[in-house]
Design goal:
The chain is built from 9 helices and 2 strands, in the order H-H-H-H-E-E-H-H-H-H-H. The chain is mainly alpha-helical and 302 residues long. The chain has one domain. A two-stranded antiparallel sheet has the order 1-2. The longest helix has 42 residues.
Length: 302
């Protein structure tokens, strides 16, 4: 039928695009992890910023790997999902990796906000002095929340056995039952908390950078500093945009499941998993050391 053909076409297109995103994202995040590890071996010290970026790169590598394996199996051998506990294990692992990705990204944005902003409030001064000690606890809380999310998502996932397509990327759905409403509420609350953290931190950071830029412009300071602040502002705005898309895709996938038609679900999934690729590029070009090393590797790739 026409609907079956369209569903199969969307699945094939999604598999190709996600495969390209996965390998590009794995190469970029692998580059970040390897450069930071080599730098750590050379200088034998790690600042908090590098720790967060390194941990974020590892989380994104895991997120990309498990997503691609799931999509590959769903496209090539979908019947493997009829094995007991296989759908739930994949759903729980994907949720754990995806939640880790989003929460560590939120931690990085909050870290930049505390480190860069120059507000004179007592709370900001205290956090700025203690931020290096807080970073390991941020890692612990991020992993703990992601683990809880994975366990909860294990219990609400099922496979649609009545699927009419032989290859269907959207086989894993969620049970929309009354007794699971608190579970959905908690999962949505955790995702929303990370999103609010990002937005709040980014707004404060944008306000501080813009105020500092206006100050430099009023004092006729060098254009180089102003360009650096403008570049930072653009990077933050880009991160807010891509993070908002990823958050929206996560919430829609959670609340609607298979109720979304194939075409909207196709775009939701594509944009949802663009975060590990696009934001990692933003991190590279926002860091002079990573950018310089990255540009040196491009002739080798060619």
């Amino acid at each position: 039928s026409r609907e079956k053909f369209n569903a199969t076409s969307y699945d094939t297109m999604a598999f190709v695009i996600i495969t390209l995103q996965t390998f590009a994202g794995m190469w970029i995040n692998g580059f970040i992890v390897s450069v930071l590890c080599v730098a750590q071996v050379k200088k034998k010290t790690f600042n908090s910023n590098e720790k967060i970026v390194l941990f974020l790169g590892c989380c994104r590598l895991g997120d990309l790997c498990i997503t691609w394996v799931y999509v590959l199996l769903a496209t090539v051998y979908p019947h493997c999902f009829y094995v007991n506990d296989m759908p739930q294990m994949f759903a729980a692992t994907r949720m754990f990796c995806h939640c880790s990705n989003m929460w560590v990204s939120a931690c990085l944005c909050g870290f930049y906000c505390i480190k860069i902003t120059n507000f004179q409030h007592t709370l900001f001064i205290y956090l700025k002095a203690k931020i290096d000690r807080i970073v390991p606890w941020l890692f612990f809380v991020s992993v703990l929340l992601s683990l809880v999310m994975g366990i909860l998502f294990y219990n609400v996932t099922y496979i649609n056995i009545n699927s009419t397509t032989s290859t269907n990327l959207w086989k894993l759905s969620v049970r929309m039952e009354e007794n699971l409403v608190p579970t959905f509420f908690f999962i949505g609350f955790i995702l929303t908390t990370a999103f609010v953290t990002v937005i709040f931190s980014a707004i404060l950071l944008l306000f501080s950078l813009w105020r500092h830029k206006c100050r430099m412009q009023a004092n006729s300071m060098r254009n180089l500093n102003k360009d650096a602040h403008i570049k930072a502002i653009k990077s933050i705005l880009s991160f807010i945009f891509i993070y908002s898309i990823s958050f929206t895709g996560s919430i829609l996938s959670l609340t609607h499941g298979r109720k979304i038609e194939n075409l909207p679900m196709f775009f939701i999934t594509i944009f949802q998993y663009a975060l590990p690729l696009v934001h990692s590029l933003i991190l590279i070009f926002s860091n002079p050391k990573l950018e310089k090393t990255f540009l040196k590797t491009l002739p080798c790739v060619k």
